[in-house]
Amino acid sequence: MKPMIAIYVRVSTNEQAENGHSITEQIDRLCKFCDALNLGKPKVYNDSGYSGANTDRPALQLLISDVKAKKINKVIVYKLDRLSRSQKDTLMLIEDIFLSNGCDFVSMSENFDTSTPLGKAMIGVLAVFAQLEREQIKERMSMGREARAKQGKYAGSWRLPLGYDYIDGELVPNDFEKIQIQKIFSDYASGKAPVTIAKELNGKGLTHRYGIWQTEVIRSILRRKTYIGYVAFNGEWYKGTHEPIISEELFDKVQKRLKKVGEDFKEHNRRPGKALSYLGGLVYCKRCGEKYFKYNRRSNQYSYDYYCCFNRYPRDRKGTCKNDNWRMEELDKLIFDEIKKLSFESSTPSILPDNSDTINDRINELNKQIERLMNLYTLDEIPFDVLQKKIHSISEQKGKLEKSLIQEPATITTEEAEEIVTSFDDVLATEDIDTIRTAITSLINRIEIDGENVYIYWNFD
Q1: Is the distance from CB of 285 to CB of 309 less than 8 angstroms?
Q2: Degrees to nearest 5, angle at CA 298 with 296 and 301
Q3: How many CA atoms lie within 13 A of 420 on its CB side?
Q4: pTM of the predicted model over 0.85
């Protein structure tokens, strides 16, 4: 099979709008160029709508494959920057792909080709200028984004922050994700671990636009000042114009806990995010106000886990607090026994905000998605197996949300607390640390230690 002449054309959407380098115009001029030189009818490789910043383009990859297979012996482009805007990529394509496989390269507008010594010399020069142009574009874009951030406007990122939609150039709270962000902050501030928070959200069907909740995503959210009204650019935070989702008081409380937990993990060489004890994050010193943490005391004869005050065992080992340590198994047992002894005869339910309207809105959205899928199926736009799979997934999420409206409101009432207490023995029998912690943190807001005295503050009246 005789090798063919190839013409490669490319244009991004912005370039076509600004410079008029349309695909049709490029193809027309290159075909006339081939006719004038009696090169025959060329094969067209078209990458419409792709940037020249990298080589990840379908038509270019096909061209590379054909050149290596010796199907092409000459590649012609309208301008050098149609091939690539990167100096490194341009030289790689010409020298390592085209020339090394016996394929010449011609740029029509610059009037040179690699079959001449001058053309080979000019390749390097023009590639430098193509790279310079790209760097200047990047610099202008960066300056524009920085200016937006300083004005308090969202400057963009690799993906939109959860909890917000982007409407008319502004961040606007997304009601369904907003209640999840608020729950993440409040739950972490009350002592729950990120892994526990993720399990609870996913269990209630409270997913976000990118999928199910992951521990790392929750940790990232807890550190973002976006939720108290700031925007970020290049590592700097600026006061934003969008509506905050979280109060600064709650955000500061979360940052203090993150700092303490981080110091604890660094001190004891432990991995963040994994619950290590049933009462972690709930136990405080009544004398100095610091939190208790898990501490392991070892010797040749024994190894015991304790709950210890931070001010008794700080990093410099010069603690000022003399409050008692508690053997972990003893304090755990005491708390378990107190939970089992709870009586609700004279209690009244706690009343907290109800997010049922927002959850109902999400259920209505899912119903509309199912309706749209059925319409597509009726019009033969999607096959039955795809329809069945998608509807099953949506119905499963919808069922979890409907269940959360009935069984798991956003707050704990006395009736719910009584139900947890009644089944507490069964929860302990699972021996699953996250399941047990979830039950405990649902019931208990805070535990304070004063020597041999233990004070429990419940999440209900």
Answers
A1: yes
A2: 145
A3: 23
A4: no
